[in-house]
């Protein structure tokens, strides 16, 4: 009875703490959203560049079934690949640079002297980049649907699972870059080294179906290849069980990246 009474007495404090955290997260995320929209490269490459790519290649090849792509149209195949490209933009080029910039300007350290934890800032960065990824994907979908009658042949639940796994796996690499980089210049160099092979050698922009065998073998060493393959597979009607290799590799990448980040991340 005493324990029950004590638990009841603690509930108001617990609820107050939850409300405090949620309010802090909301305010920080709102600020981060406004700051993100001021970053022209991030906005352009997250929102407009994938849609422009879809318009360009869709305009050239149309969306009629093609034997090279397993009987699917170029636009139907390109949509999940360009979704992976958006994930790479937000996860590799935006997330680590924002975190490193805050650390270099000692913004994370200053938050330690306020009721807001630096963890709230880091979490808000992840949340806002996930939101922007989904917004870019929605815009891409609308362009594909309105202009080329884009087809979704898969099921919603496996597609959401594949999308979230791809986001968290690629974002974990971004957090790892932020953890290992001593300053924002180093983070930019590492991010570019990681990002450009991801864009051009994984099927995210140029279909792997037209790659020579040697380039396909090289693509197997780049994490985004597995996101592209998984997203494309479930989008075109495949089951998650058909892509256990992709799922396993993405989970391993996420686990290793986060474990290293836990031990190497610095607030200042």
TrEMBL record:
Query: By its UniProt entry, which Pfam families does this protein fall under?
Result: ABC2_membrane
* Membrane disposition: Multi-pass membrane protein
Tell me where the transmembrane regions lie: 35-61, 81-100, 121-143, 155-177, 189-208, 247-267
Q: What subcellular locations does the record give?
A: Cell membrane; Membrane
Q: Name one GO cellular component term.
A: ATP-binding cassette (ABC) transporter complex
| Lineage, top ranks | Bacteria, Bacillati, Bacillota, Clostridia, Thermoanaerobacterales
Q: Which domain of life is it from?
A: Bacteria
Q: What is its main location?
A: membrane
Protein family (similarity comment): Belongs to the ABC-2 integral membrane protein family.
Task: Identify the InterPro entries for this entry.
Answer: ABC-2_transporter, ABC2_TM, ABC2_TM_bact-type, ABC_2_transport
An example molecular function term from Gene Ontology annotations: ABC-type transporter activity
What's in the keyword line of the UniProt record? Cell membrane, Membrane, Transmembrane, Transmembrane helix, Transport
Show the PANTHER family listed in the entry: DOXORUBICIN RESISTANCE ABC TRANSPORTER PERMEASE PROTEIN DRRC-RELATED, TRANSPORT PERMEASE PROTEIN
Name the chain's protein.
Transport permease protein
């Amino acid at each position: 009875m005493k324990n029950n009474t004590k638990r009841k007495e603690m509930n108001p404090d617990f609820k107050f703490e939850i409300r405090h955290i949620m309010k802090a997260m909301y305010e920080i995320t709102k600020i981060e959203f406004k700051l993100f929209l001021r970053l022209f490269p991030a906005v352009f490459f997250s929102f407009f560049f994938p849609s422009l790519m879809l318009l360009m290649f869709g305009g050239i090849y149309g969306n009629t079934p093609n034997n090279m792509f397993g009987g699917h149209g170029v636009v139907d195949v390109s949509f999940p690949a360009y979704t992976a490209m958006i994930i790479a933009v937000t996860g590799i080029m935006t997330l680590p640079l924002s975190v490193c910039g805050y650390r270099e300007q000692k913004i994370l350290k200053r938050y330690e002297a306020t009721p807001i934890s630096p963890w709230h800032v880091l979490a808000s960065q992840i949340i806002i980049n996930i939101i922007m990824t989904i917004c870019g994907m929605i815009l891409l979908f609308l362009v594909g649907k309105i202009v080329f009658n884009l087809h979704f042949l898969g099921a919603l639940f496996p597609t959401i699972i594949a999308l979230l796994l791809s986001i968290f796996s690629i974002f974990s690499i971004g957090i790892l870059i932020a953890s290992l980089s001593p300053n924002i210049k180093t983070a930019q160099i590492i991010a570019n080294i990681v990002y450009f092979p991801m864009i051009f050698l994984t099927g995210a922009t140029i279909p792997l179906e037209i790659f020579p065998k040697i380039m396909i073998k090289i693509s197997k060493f780049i994490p985004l290849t597995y996101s592209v393959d998984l997203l494309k597979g479930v989008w075109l009607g495949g089951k998650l069980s058909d892509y256990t290799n992709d799922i396993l590799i993405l989970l391993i990448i996420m686990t290793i990246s986060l474990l290293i980040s836990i031990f190497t991340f610095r607030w200042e």
